[in-house]
Amino acid sequence: MKQHIDKLYLVCSIIFLAFFCYVFYFLYVQIITNDLTTKEIDAKWKAEFARREEIKSLEKALDTVSSEQSSLESHFVKSSDLVSFLNNMEDLGKGVSATAETTDLNLSSDKSTLVVRIKAEGNFESIYKFITLLENYPYQIEFSSLDVVKDSTDTASKSSVWKMEATINLLSFTYNNFNNL
Questions:
Q1: Strand partners, 77
Q2: Closest CA to 114 of 123, 124, 102
Q3: What is the pairing mode between strands 77-78 and 173-174?
Q4: Parallel/antiparallel/unpaired status of strands 99-107 and 173-174
Q5: Cα(110)–Cα(167) distance, rounded to whole angstroms?
Q6: What angle do CA 12, 15, 17 make, to 5 degrees?
Q7: Closest by alpha carbon to 70, among 59, 62, 80?
Q8: Can you give the C-alpha Rg of the chain in angstroms?
Protein backbone atom coordinates (compact mmCIF):
# COMPACT_ATOMS: atom_id res chain seq x y z
CA MET A 1 0.00 0.00 0.00
CA LYS A 2 2.93 2.22 0.70
CA GLN A 3 4.04 1.77 -2.85
CA HIS A 4 0.58 2.63 -3.97
CA ILE A 5 0.66 5.91 -1.99
CA ASP A 6 4.13 6.68 -3.34
CA LYS A 7 2.86 6.13 -6.88
CA LEU A 8 -0.12 8.33 -6.12
CA TYR A 9 2.20 11.09 -4.84
CA LEU A 10 4.35 10.72 -7.94
CA VAL A 11 1.33 10.92 -10.27
CA CYS A 12 -0.08 13.92 -8.33
CA SER A 13 3.33 15.59 -8.42
CA ILE A 14 3.57 15.08 -12.18
CA ILE A 15 0.01 16.40 -12.63
CA PHE A 16 0.80 19.45 -10.45
CA LEU A 17 4.07 19.97 -12.32
CA ALA A 18 2.25 19.79 -15.67
CA PHE A 19 -0.49 22.11 -14.38
CA PHE A 20 2.02 24.65 -13.04
CA CYS A 21 4.10 24.40 -16.22
CA TYR A 22 0.95 25.12 -18.21
CA VAL A 23 0.06 28.04 -15.91
CA PHE A 24 3.64 29.32 -16.17
CA TYR A 25 3.58 29.03 -19.98
CA PHE A 26 0.15 30.70 -20.14
CA LEU A 27 1.31 33.60 -17.95
CA TYR A 28 4.57 33.87 -19.90
CA VAL A 29 2.65 34.15 -23.18
CA GLN A 30 0.35 36.77 -21.61
CA ILE A 31 3.36 38.77 -20.42
CA ILE A 32 4.94 38.67 -23.90
CA THR A 33 1.62 39.64 -25.50
CA ASN A 34 1.15 42.50 -23.05
CA ASP A 35 4.73 43.63 -23.64
CA LEU A 36 4.19 43.70 -27.42
CA THR A 37 0.90 45.54 -26.97
CA THR A 38 2.58 48.04 -24.67
CA LYS A 39 5.38 48.61 -27.20
CA GLU A 40 2.84 49.14 -30.00
CA ILE A 41 0.84 51.59 -27.88
CA ASP A 42 4.04 53.38 -26.86
CA ALA A 43 5.10 53.66 -30.51
CA LYS A 44 1.67 55.03 -31.45
CA TRP A 45 1.79 57.48 -28.55
CA LYS A 46 5.27 58.67 -29.58
CA ALA A 47 4.13 59.06 -33.19
CA GLU A 48 1.06 61.02 -32.08
CA PHE A 49 3.19 63.17 -29.77
CA ALA A 50 5.64 63.87 -32.61
CA ARG A 51 2.74 64.68 -34.92
CA ARG A 52 1.27 67.13 -32.38
CA GLU A 53 4.67 68.77 -31.89
CA GLU A 54 5.00 69.11 -35.65
CA ILE A 55 1.52 70.65 -35.82
CA LYS A 56 2.49 73.15 -33.10
CA SER A 57 5.69 73.94 -34.96
CA LEU A 58 3.79 74.42 -38.22
CA GLU A 59 1.22 76.65 -36.50
CA LYS A 60 4.03 78.83 -35.10
CA ALA A 61 5.64 78.97 -38.54
CA LEU A 62 2.29 79.85 -40.09
CA ASP A 63 1.79 82.66 -37.56
CA THR A 64 5.26 83.96 -38.36
CA VAL A 65 4.66 83.74 -42.09
CA SER A 66 1.25 85.42 -41.86
CA SER A 67 2.70 88.30 -39.82
CA GLU A 68 5.54 88.62 -42.34
CA GLN A 69 3.01 88.42 -45.16
CA SER A 70 0.92 91.24 -43.70
CA SER A 71 4.11 93.26 -43.20
CA LEU A 72 5.11 92.59 -46.79
CA GLU A 73 1.64 93.37 -48.13
CA SER A 74 1.72 96.74 -46.37
CA HIS A 75 4.36 97.78 -48.93
CA PHE A 76 2.06 97.07 -51.87
CA VAL A 77 -0.88 99.13 -53.05
CA LYS A 78 -3.87 97.14 -54.18
CA SER A 79 -6.20 98.63 -56.72
CA SER A 80 -8.93 98.56 -54.06
CA ASP A 81 -6.74 100.75 -51.78
CA LEU A 82 -5.88 103.27 -54.46
CA VAL A 83 -7.98 106.12 -53.09
CA SER A 84 -6.42 105.92 -49.64
CA PHE A 85 -2.95 105.74 -51.24
CA LEU A 86 -3.60 108.95 -53.22
CA ASN A 87 -5.08 110.67 -50.16
CA ASN A 88 -2.03 109.69 -48.10
CA MET A 89 0.23 111.08 -50.81
CA GLU A 90 -1.62 114.39 -50.77
CA ASP A 91 -1.58 114.40 -46.96
CA LEU A 92 2.21 114.21 -47.08
CA GLY A 93 2.12 117.62 -48.72
CA LYS A 94 -0.16 119.01 -46.03
CA GLY A 95 2.23 117.73 -43.38
CA VAL A 96 5.03 119.91 -44.75
CA SER A 97 2.86 122.96 -45.56
CA ALA A 98 2.62 122.31 -49.27
CA THR A 99 -0.58 121.90 -51.22
CA ALA A 100 -0.44 118.70 -53.22
CA GLU A 101 -2.95 117.27 -55.64
CA THR A 102 -3.09 114.31 -57.97
CA THR A 103 -3.69 115.45 -61.52
CA ASP A 104 -3.50 112.27 -63.57
CA LEU A 105 -3.64 108.53 -63.04
CA ASN A 106 -2.83 105.86 -65.64
CA LEU A 107 -2.40 102.12 -65.51
CA SER A 108 0.38 100.58 -67.57
CA SER A 109 -0.60 98.17 -70.33
CA ASP A 110 0.64 95.16 -68.37
CA LYS A 111 -1.29 96.42 -65.32
CA SER A 112 1.76 96.11 -63.07
CA THR A 113 2.64 99.80 -62.75
CA LEU A 114 0.52 102.78 -61.88
CA VAL A 115 1.60 106.15 -63.28
CA VAL A 116 0.65 109.07 -61.03
CA ARG A 117 1.09 112.74 -61.89
CA ILE A 118 1.13 114.98 -58.87
CA LYS A 119 1.45 118.75 -58.47
CA ALA A 120 2.49 120.59 -55.34
CA GLU A 121 2.84 124.22 -54.42
CA GLY A 122 4.54 125.89 -51.45
CA ASN A 123 7.80 127.48 -50.40
CA PHE A 124 11.08 125.87 -51.41
CA GLU A 125 11.57 124.17 -48.05
CA SER A 126 8.12 122.55 -48.09
CA ILE A 127 8.55 121.38 -51.71
CA TYR A 128 11.96 119.92 -50.87
CA LYS A 129 10.56 118.12 -47.81
CA PHE A 130 7.62 116.84 -49.85
CA ILE A 131 9.97 115.37 -52.47
CA THR A 132 12.05 113.78 -49.71
CA LEU A 133 8.92 112.26 -48.15
CA LEU A 134 7.88 110.86 -51.52
CA GLU A 135 11.34 109.33 -52.00
CA ASN A 136 11.08 107.69 -48.58
CA TYR A 137 7.51 106.52 -49.04
CA PRO A 138 7.11 102.88 -47.95
CA TYR A 139 6.07 101.86 -51.46
CA GLN A 140 8.44 101.21 -54.34
CA ILE A 141 8.13 104.29 -56.51
CA GLU A 142 10.21 105.68 -59.34
CA PHE A 143 10.28 109.28 -60.47
CA SER A 144 10.06 109.37 -64.26
CA SER A 145 9.99 113.18 -64.31
CA LEU A 146 10.34 115.91 -61.70
CA ASP A 147 10.07 119.62 -62.39
CA VAL A 148 10.56 122.21 -59.66
CA VAL A 149 10.20 125.85 -60.67
CA LYS A 150 9.85 129.15 -58.91
CA ASP A 151 6.52 130.83 -59.65
CA SER A 152 7.37 134.01 -61.53
CA THR A 153 3.83 135.38 -61.38
CA ASP A 154 4.01 135.96 -57.59
CA THR A 155 6.66 138.69 -57.28
CA ALA A 156 4.82 140.85 -54.73
CA SER A 157 5.06 138.49 -51.75
CA LYS A 158 8.17 138.20 -49.60
CA SER A 159 8.25 134.41 -49.60
CA SER A 160 8.56 132.94 -53.05
CA VAL A 161 6.14 130.28 -54.21
CA TRP A 162 7.57 127.16 -55.80
CA LYS A 163 5.71 124.66 -57.91
CA MET A 164 6.50 121.04 -58.44
CA GLU A 165 5.20 118.62 -61.03
CA ALA A 166 6.20 114.97 -60.83
CA THR A 167 5.38 111.81 -62.71
CA ILE A 168 5.73 108.84 -60.41
CA ASN A 169 5.64 105.18 -61.37
CA LEU A 170 4.24 103.10 -58.55
CA LEU A 171 6.06 99.80 -59.00
CA SER A 172 4.56 98.11 -55.95
CA PHE A 173 1.04 98.06 -57.36
CA THR A 174 -1.19 94.99 -57.50
CA TYR A 175 -4.14 95.11 -59.84
CA ASN A 176 -7.31 93.31 -58.73
CA ASN A 177 -9.67 92.77 -61.62
CA PHE A 178 -13.03 92.33 -59.92
CA ASN A 179 -14.81 91.75 -63.24
CA ASN A 180 -13.18 88.33 -63.61
CA LEU A 181 -14.48 87.01 -60.29
A1: 173
A2: 102
A3: parallel
A4: unpaired
A5: 18
A6: 105
A7: 62
A8: 42
SS3 136: coil
Kindly compute the dihedral angle of the four CA atoms of residues 140, 143, 144, 149, in this order, to the nearest 10 degrees. 160
- Burial grade of 164 (CB within 10 A; 0-12, 13-18, 19 or more): buried
Question: Residue 64 in contact with residue 58, Cβ under 8 Å?
Answer: no
CA distance 174 to 77: 6
Partner residues linked to 84 by β-bridges? none
DSSP 144: E
pLDDT in tens, 66-103: 877 777 766 677 767 778 888 888 888 888 989 999 89
Q: Which residue has the higher pLDDT, 163 or 178?
A: 163
pTM tops 0.85:
no
